[in-house]
Design goal:
The protein contains nine helices and eight strands. By secondary structure, the protein is α/β, with parallel strands linked by helices. It binds pyridoxal-5'-phosphate. The site of pyridoxal-5'-phosphate (PLP) has 14 residues, from strand 8 and helix 9.
């Protein structure tokens, strides 16, 4: 059985160590526990261990799992880290505090409309297709500044930028490119780094590491 509390403690320690090694404060790095495919008992274990910030990649799955948990736990922050279709914008606005996957103008329009209707506006990050991979979501790096401007113009608070670097090769140059996009747009948050590379991402300035399997075990 996966010991979620022990894994969380281990990841928190490794985050603190990586931050210290990079001359950064551990508190400057936020752990987003990626709980896609994890069922409610696993989520309860993480909540009991003090985790309050979670990432989900599907609107429907989040809808099934989180409203009940929100009723029982305070201080939760739910972040959407998967691709969002415009026809799910309304549900996403209702469920998520932060949407990390803003990647096209049409989605900004849909979310602005849904937010106005709901009277609730999630904070957002712009997802950048940092390795320019055809199969991956995210705005082209050259279009990122314009999309950040568009999101701001539509009334969103843009907290930062997010990326999933190519699976092959050293992610360092990709982390640095995302960091540069964040810097030149005056953005505080860099969402980068997963189970396999979060320490490296912290060395390259990550403020939000998205860690799933290292906490909850391998996904089936
Ligand atoms: C699944 C997922 C993660 C977590 O990946 P692990 O390798 O399990 O840590 C992080 N970010 C995104 C966007 C994901 O879809």
């Amino acid at each position: 059985m996966t010991d979620i509390a022990a894994n969380l403690a281990d990841i928190r320690r490794r985050i603190a160590d990586a931050a210290a090694a990079a001359d950064r404060k551990p508190a400057d790095v936020t752990l987003v526990a990626v709980s896609k495919t994890v069922e409610v008992p696993g989520l309860e274990a993480a909540l009991a261990a003090g985790q309050r910030i979670f990432g989900e990649n599907r609107v429907q799955e989040a809808e099934a799992k989180w409203p009940g948990l929100r009723a029982r736990h305070t201080g939760l922050q739910l972040r959407l880290i998967g691709p969002l279709q415009t026809n799910k914008a309304k549900d996403a606005v209702r469920l998520f505090d932060v949407i990390e996957t803003i990647d096209r103008p049409k989605l900004i329009e849909a979310l602005a409309k849904a937010s106005d209707q709901a009277g609730r506006r999630p904070r957002v990050l712009v997802q950048v297709n940092i390795g320019r991979e055809p199969q991956k979501a995210g705005v082209d790096p050259d279009q990122a500044d314009a999309l950040i401007d568009a999101a701001r113009l539509a009334g969103f608070v843009v907290d930062g930028v997010m990326c999933i670097p190519p699976a092959e090769g050293d992610p360092s140059p990709h982390f640095d490119r995302l960091s540069e996009i964040g810097r030149r747009n005056g953005l505080a948050q860099l969402s980068m780094g997963m189970s396999g590379d979060f320490e490296l991402a912290i060395r390259h300035g990550s403020t939000h590491v998205r860690v799933g399997s290292a906490i909850f075990g391998a996904r089936g």
